[in-house]
Design goal:
This is Adenosine deaminase domain-containing protein. InterPro entries: A_deaminase_dom (IPR001365), Ado/ade_deaminase (IPR006330). One of its GO terms (molecular function) is metal ion binding. The chain is of the alpha/beta class. The chain has a single domain, classed as TIM Barrel (Alpha-Beta Barrel), CATH 3.20.20. 49% of the residues lie in helices and 14% in strands.
Length: 383
């Protein structure tokens, strides 16, 4: 191939990539695994860090590099989460972060979002788990760039979710609607009593957008038996549960989680052959986080990610970001990575996004509305 032909081929490839990336943004999407603190904008983190530095709480230069670093290991990621906890120590900051995270997801045509966050106690700031969640809910109520649907009753026949058509990318001025629900996370560092408090709080806030429980945190910390009473309590109360599973090769816990059979599982990276068979037979939907898994070592590479195995087995799954800020990604980018890495076309990507509707924890009215979003988008996008 001569230089001219090579240049033409490169230009064509670049144009094809541009088209697919734009299409992935326009695609209506469902996000089921997004941590609030891990989705904070870098610019906001830097601003908050500078404010704390000015107050003498931290040294700005010590954290600046941590915030901006790419290619973090799993342990580095959890060290950055510690920084998030330092930065988000008051109610106004929590509300601001929530507002910005929702607006960012809405901007890329995420029409349904489940945000998970660990309710925090901070006695020095007068923060309780309840007041922390009140701040999160306040943040949802102050979103300006999109209209947030927080309650099922808000979805009436004259009020439908919208996404940006391909023909209007870059010029759309309509305010999009995004359906947002909240998952309360039990942190693996918590005691059994603290975990039970989180479950009870989720029940108290079920009429304010809280619809599920998550178990997450540093996977090498804590024991399954510590959280099991709280998870069983949630199951008794009818609260849907999603659990981080297999981030590390903990055979005993992976088996226990699969036996517990939650409504969804996150990651499922480090399973052995028998565990893969058990997962597939269970048909528990899996929240796939490609970039996160590769950056933290849960998957050796994009090409060798277990997405392909589960997808080819027709296992229920949804693409997710995990921590869009922490891993410098977006849900649109995760869809593009699936297309470019595994050769999925637009029709397959559309079906993948549409299937995720069935795995949301929200009620039937929300699912009905989301199905309508995809029905309206199908003619233009599924080509």
């Amino acid at each position: 191939m001569d230089a001219e032909a090579a240049a033409a081929a490169a230009a064509a490839a670049k144009e094809k990539e541009k088209d697919m990336r734009e299409w992935c943004v326009a695609l209506p999407k469902v996000e089921l695994h997004a941590h609030l603190n891990g989705s904070v904008r870098d610019s906001t983190l830097l601003e908050l860090a500078k404010q704390l530095s000015d107050k003498g709480v931290i040294v700005f230069e010590d954290v600046k590099g941590v915030i901006m670093k790419n290619g973090r290991s799993l342990q580095e990621c959890f060290r950055l989460f510690e920084l998030y906890h330092i930065l988000t120590t008051d109610h106004d900051t929590v509300a601001r972060i929530t507002k910005e995270v929702v607006e960012d997801f809405a901007a890329e045509n995420v029409v349904y979002l489940e945000i998970r966050t660990t309710p925090k106690n901070n006695e020095a700031k007068g923060m309780t788990k309840r007041s922390y969640m009140n701040a999160v809910i306040k943040g949802l109520q102050t979103v300006e760039a999109a209209e947030v649907v927080l309650f099922d009753s808000n979805l009436s026949t004259d009020k439908t979710l919208t996404c940006t058509p391909m023909s209007e990318l870059g010029g759309d001025t309509r305010k999009k609607m995004i359906c947002v629900r909240l998952l309360l996370s039990i942190d693996r560092r918590e005691t059994t009593l603290a975990a039970l408090d989180t479950v009870n709080l989720a029940m108290e806030l079920k009429d304010q957008g809280v619809i599920g429980i998550d178990l997450s945190g540093n996977p090498v910390v804590g024991e399954w038996e510590t959280y099991l009473p709280a998870l069983e309590h949630a199951k008794e109360l009818g609260i849907p549960i999603t659990i981080h599973c297999g981030e590390v090769a903990n055979r005993k816990e992976i088996q226990a989680v699969l036996d517990f059979c939650p409504q969804r599982l996150g990651h499922v990276c480090c399973l052995n052959d028998d565990e893969w068979k058990k997962l597939k037979s269970s048909m528990i939907p899996v929240e796939i986080c490609l970039t996160s898994n590769v950056m933290t070592g849960g998957a050796p590479s994009l090409e060798l990610h277990h997405f392909a195995d589960l997808y080819n087995a027709k296992h229920p799954l949804s693409l997710c970001t995990d921590d869009s800020g922490l891993f410098s990604t977006s849900l649109s980018n995760e869809y593009y990575l699936v297309a470019s890495t595994f050769g999925l076309g637009k029709a397959e990507l559309f079906q993948l996004a549409q299937d995720a509707v069935e795995f949301v924890f929200a009620g039937d009215e929300v699912k009905k509305s989301l199905r309508e979003v995809f029905k309206r988008a199908e003619k233009e996008l599924k080509t």
